[in-house]
Amino acid sequence: MPIRDDVLVVGGGLAATTAALAAAESGKKVRLVAHKKSTLRQASGLIDVLGYADGDGPHADPYAAMADLSEDHPYRILGEEAVREGLRIFDEAVGEMYAGGHTDTNALVPTYGGTVKPTARYPASVAPGLASIDEDTLFVGFEGTTDFAANVVAEHVANAGVPFETRGVTLPFPKRFRADARLTRFAKALDEDERVDRGVGVRRALADTVREHTSGEDRVGFPAMLGDVHGDEVREDLESRLGMSVFEVPTGPPSLLGLKLEDRLFDALDDAGVRIATGNPAVGYEADGDRIEAVYVDQKGSRVPYHAEQFVLATGGLVGKGIDSDREGVTEPLFDCHVPHAEDRYDWSEEAAFGDHAFARFGVVPDEEMRPTTASGEPQFENLRAAGGVVGGADVAREKSASGVSLATAAVAGGRAGEEA
């Protein structure tokens, strides 16, 4: 019996999950096909809309700054309402797990590198540490972990001009782990309040250790490792024992905050009735004229067709291999969609490491319904739409706009696919 749905979404990250949720709101049968593990687990867990535009920023109001973007930017093509619709879908999916939905203004969040990042949505566990809150802050890191140098974080945050005093200390964690232990192991110990010396729980032991190094601060920030399943309970326990606010600082990959977000979004897909197929790559397609009939998925060497009425391509950009490049040029490997680029590959980048690189904006060119277009500007396929990093026109790393672009493009692509299926 052939596999058939109304909408098929190819991809597994923020754009793919959002597009699937948007399509499912139409009541249609939706399936998500993902090859690799989601890139969400490599991300900070923060949801950026727009922090910088045309080299200026950070911007307090991301919507006001959109007028400064180029006309081929996805925000300019889709408009402000698409961004708001993407955020609505996200907010409904994550519920109280995230904060920031009460305002259009960016929050300023300290990160593990000590930067203060403008972001639109952030985990509730991060909220007490916002740089706009005038409370003296102690940052705590742990011996044996290399991803979070507390004194460096404190120094960099202070240099950003925050209105409070900062200090950093590096302490031994109350329980010893292998030298290569990841933050997820620390989180598990706190989740289960594992026993340490003399039968004391690790939460109490941690609070006792930190308390010896406080000096009148109002709050304390830890790398994002304060529990996984029982994170709220861990923070409340530490706050009660320390007598101050406790918050998490987003870390680099593998990111516990990113893993939690991935779990929540996939739970939302289950709740919405979206079918999920993971672990096998999409390797080709079948078309009849200007309409795609099926996408082929490699399953143990066999090409299995997944049929649908509408398709959404959300496979990522250059990092996620949704866009590929070599000495011959730049391509979109699944549907061979048009990706504009200079013929001379030396024109793809600038000499300055943080310059305005052309490669950062590589991707398919969508119409207003997010259908990838040909070199002449016509939709390549009537029933194919694109979302997320595979869409070109935005330097999302420089702008701090990756999540917002994913949400906006996915809301339109998934919503239109659901309507047309």
From TrEMBL:
<keyword id="KW-0285">Flavoprotein</keyword>
<dbReference type="InterPro" id="IPR003953">
    <property type="entry name" value="FAD-dep_OxRdtase_2_FAD-bd"/>
</dbReference>
<protein>
    <submittedName>
        <fullName>Glycerol-3-phosphate dehydrogenase subunit B</fullName>
    </submittedName>
</protein>
<dbReference type="GO" id="GO:0009331">
    <property type="term" value="C:glycerol-3-phosphate dehydrogenase (FAD) complex"/>
</dbReference>
<keyword id="KW-0288">FMN</keyword>
<keyword id="KW-0560">Oxidoreductase</keyword>
<dbReference type="GO" id="GO:0004368">
    <property type="term" value="F:glycerol-3-phosphate dehydrogenase (quinone) activity"/>
</dbReference>
<feature type="domain" description="FAD-dependent oxidoreductase 2 FAD-binding">
    <location>
        <begin position="6"/>
        <end position="405"/>
    </location>
</feature>
<dbReference type="Pfam" id="PF00890">
    <property type="entry name" value="FAD_binding_2"/>
</dbReference>
<dbReference type="InterPro" id="IPR036188">
    <property type="entry name" value="FAD/NAD-bd_sf"/>
</dbReference>
<dbReference type="InterPro" id="IPR009158">
    <property type="entry name" value="G3P_DH_GlpB_su"/>
</dbReference>
